[in-house]
Amino acid sequence: MLLFRHCFVPVVILLVLSPVLAQQAKPAEPDAQDVIYLLDSSDQTLKPLPKETAKTASKVDSHSGSTSVKAAIQIPGSASSFHVKGGNDLEFVIKCEIPPAFLLPFTQQGNNREGVISSVKTGGFGVVKENKKFWMPFAVSKYGESSWRLVVKAPDAGEYGFVIGYSVFDFAVDPK
User: Fold this and answer.
1) CB 72 within 8 A of CB 111
2) pLDDT tens-digit profile of 51-73?
3) If we measure between CA atoms, which residue out of 118, 116, 44, 113 comes closest to residue 82?
4) Positive or negative, the Cα torsion across 90, 95, 101, 104?
5) What is the pLDDT averaged over residues 87-108?
6) What does pTM read for this prediction?
7) What is the per-residue pLDDT across 116-142, written as a single tens digit (0 to 9) for each?
């Protein structure tokens, strides 16, 4: 009987606390739909990235029987207002049906920042000589019930942005 009492009390406590513990284990999901947040690893809080409206900045050059095409987008400003420290993997969260397809590095072009999506060079008769894609890889996994986690493996210092339609959620990675 004594053994029963010693085992019974801890089991009852675990059963009573298990819904509370399960509630705490659920990740905090974003309130807003289609907004990308940085998941701060120090305290597991979500910090929204700034949203910029992109415009297309494609360019076609043709000379001596060859053509080059650059597909790019531009966002305003010389730098992102959102900075993170470099040297670590970065985790982002978005509440949406389909996660974003592109993460682009951006470089300054005048008063704007430009992200090149791809460039193609062709020779005579339309033969493709070069076809480069500039987007960066990131891992995607389910997060909570209706969100996605996007993990970027230790990006170099620079400007980056997730592209969703004509919106870019941008951030800057500072040197280590």
Assistant:
1) no
2) 999 999 888 888 777 888 888 99
3) 113
4) negative
5) 94
6) 0.79
7) 988 888 877 767 777 778 889 999 999
Extents of the domains making up the chain = 30-174
Copy the structure tokens of residue 128: 């493709």
- Round to whole Å and give the CA distance between 169 and 113: 13
From the list 99, 98, 120, 116, the residue with the least C-alpha distance to 107 is 116
Position 57: which residue type? A
Task: Answer whether 93's CB lies under 8 Å from 36's CB.
Answer: yes
Rounded to whole angstroms, the Cα distance separating 45 from 25 reads 14
Q: In what helix (H) or strand (E) does residue 55 lie, and over which residues does it extend?
A: strand 55-56
Q: Dig out the tokens for 19 from the structure.
A: 């819904």
- What is d(CA 158, CA 99) in angstroms, rounded to the nearest whole number? 23
> What number of CA atoms fall less than 13 Å from residue 147's CA on the CB side?
24
Sheet (strand 36-39) strand order: 46-48, 36-39, 90-95, 147-152, 139-143
Is the separation of the CB atoms in 150 and 94 below 8 Å?
yes
